[in-house]
């Protein structure tokens, strides 16, 4: 027998369901999803890919910046594009943090945003641009394509400058502290070792290296490598504004591969935290495995990056969709 529901008197079960849905909606609870913009902006992911490719062809170092953007954004409280906010009368930018030293190419995020705004105004979040540009950059760097990257993030209306140091590890931190920081956002030891493999690409300012070179060379450094570093960083007090850099991976410096781990086995870790991966019994087995198997490294890197990209995102009616990634919509 078919039951008819009164329009004015819904069943208790339906009433509960409607109430639950309302509570979820108003709380901003909404899962990220694959192809989130399939209806609202069908070409969103394609546009990001097009723009990242163009920018990479003009400015190759943008690829490293996109990957670092995701790390700095998602490690600090939420994947919410807070890292992109500029300083205003009521916001102090996370870019002011010492942990953000050396980050650049932020202006090109707005290049991508402007292309998306022309196609679908006020639809695609800056937080999703951070995630999608990182995915495309990883491919540009010879890494794996991360097919499971979800979208649907929304943008923060505030900076998290006051807590950046509580989430982003320092290059001189102990490996146990680094592991605990990643663990706090759901990344296990294996995933942490894989994510640190991003140090395979790009370069590091001498300011972050000289502590291992002066006044005495760190005995865990390979002598030939330490000589290279001293040539790159001849002063124990480098100028932070000067272009003084060294590379972790001199063989394939712009390829996201397992050369990083091979270098660690020969005492050629650039930062102190890098070299600790070999000496710590919790991480050294994964270093060995990744050094001998590039496909395994790529698999673990993809897995960990996906987890990081989904750290506590703003969704539903939380946050906003910024028109300009540098500023909240209402100043």
TrEMBL record:
InterPro entries: Haem_peroxidase, Haem_peroxidase_sf, Peroxidase_pln, Secretory_peroxidase. Residues 31-329 form the Plant heme peroxidase family profile domain. It catalyses: 2 a phenolic donor + H2O2 = 2 a phenolic radical donor + 2 H2O. Binds 1 heme b (iron(II)-protoporphyrin IX) group per subunit. It holds the Pfam family peroxidase. Residues 1-30 form the signal peptide. Ca(2+) 1 binds at residues 73, 76, 80, 82, 94. Substrate binds at residue 169. Heme b binds at residue 199. The active site is at 72 (proton acceptor). This is Peroxidase. The lineage of its organism: Eukaryota, Viridiplantae, Streptophyta, Embryophyta, Tracheophyta.
């Amino acid at each position: 027998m078919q039951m008819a529901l009164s329009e004015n008197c819904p069943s208790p079960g339906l009433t509960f369901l409607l109430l639950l849905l309302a509570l979820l909606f108003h709380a901003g609870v909404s899962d990220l999803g694959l192809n989130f913009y399939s209806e609202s902006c069908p070409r969103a992911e394609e546009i990001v890919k097009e723009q990242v490719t163009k920018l990479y062809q003009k400015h190759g170092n943008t690829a490293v910046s996109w990957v670092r953007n995701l790390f700095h954004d998602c490690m600090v409280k939420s994947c919410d594009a807070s890292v992109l906010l500029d300083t205003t009368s009521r916001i102090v930018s996370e870019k002011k943090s010492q942990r953000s030293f050396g980050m650049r190419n932020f202006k090109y995020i707005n290049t991508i945003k402007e292309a998306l705004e022309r196609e679908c105004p006020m639809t695609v979040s800056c937080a999703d641009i951070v995630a999608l540009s990182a995915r495309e950059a990883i491919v540009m760097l010879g890494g794996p394509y991360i097919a499971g990257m979800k979208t649907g993030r929304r943008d923060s209306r505030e900076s998290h400058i006051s807590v950046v140091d509580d989430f982003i590890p320092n290059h001189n931190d102990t490996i146990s502290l680094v592991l605990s920081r990643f663990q706090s956002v759901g990344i296990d030891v294996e995933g942490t070792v894989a994510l640190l493999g991003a140090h395979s690409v790009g370069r590091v300012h001498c300011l972050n290296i000289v502590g291992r070179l002066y006044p005495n060379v760190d005995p865990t450094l390979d002598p030939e490598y330490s000589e290279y570093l001293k040539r790159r960083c001849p002063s124990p007090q480098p100028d932070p504004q000067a272009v003084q850099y060294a590379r972790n991976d001199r063989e394939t410096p712009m390829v996201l591969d397992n050369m990083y781990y091979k270098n660690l086995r020969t005492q050629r870790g650039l930062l102190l935290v890098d070299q600790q991966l070999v000496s710590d019994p919790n991480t050294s087995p994964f270093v060995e495995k990744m050094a001998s198997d590039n496909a395994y490294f790529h698999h673990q890197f993809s897995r960990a990056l996906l987890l990081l990209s989904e750290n506590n995102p703003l969704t539903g009616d939380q946050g906003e969709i910024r028109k300009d990634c540098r500023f909240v919509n209402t100043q």
